[in-house]
Amino acid sequence: MDIFETSLKGVFGIQPKVFEDHRGWFMETWSDAKMTTLGFNVSFVQDNHSFTVKKGTLRGLHFQNSPMAQAKLVRCAAGSVLDVAVDIRKGSPNYRKWVAVELSAVNKRQLLIPRGFAHGFLTLTDNVEFVYKCDNLYSSENDRSIRFDDPTIGIDWGIDNPILSDKDAAAPFLEESDCKYIYKLK
Q1: Which of 22, 132, 138, 183 is catalytic?
Q2: pTM for the structure as a whole
Q3: Which of 21, 45, 74, 80 has the most other CB atoms within 10 Å of its CB?
Q4: Could you give the number of structural domains in the chain?
């Protein structure tokens, strides 16, 4: 696996090594042993898999408040997405900054998103399968959303009218949310 830092400190890209032959291909998407030697100490406890029918569907921006905050390892298993992470830790030098990375079944890239970041993605193709690992269980009581078009964040999604769930369409702006993340110096 090759690890690359994105423009947003704390969010890392992972490019798995892909082994191909006449039968197809194989890749290792996560290795605790390898990642621990690189300084990543994340223990995943839940895997999720979503399917989105239409190109132009936007899911997000989502996060969970503490004590059920989640780090995520995300990838696109079919199709292509524009994947976005936003720093929502008040006091962070990167507060409200975002990074976007294209993840696809072809490029096989993954994004490792730490706790304290909101996450969302826009489908760039029809029939998208999106897979992600979480280091904490889902908690409906702590599940939160932020508006995808919050002007204080200013994400360039490249689309004006995405397909949204009712939940995402009604999401508050970051300043109106009850986001509880506070940046702490290490």
Answers
A1: 132
A2: 0.91
A3: 74
A4: 1
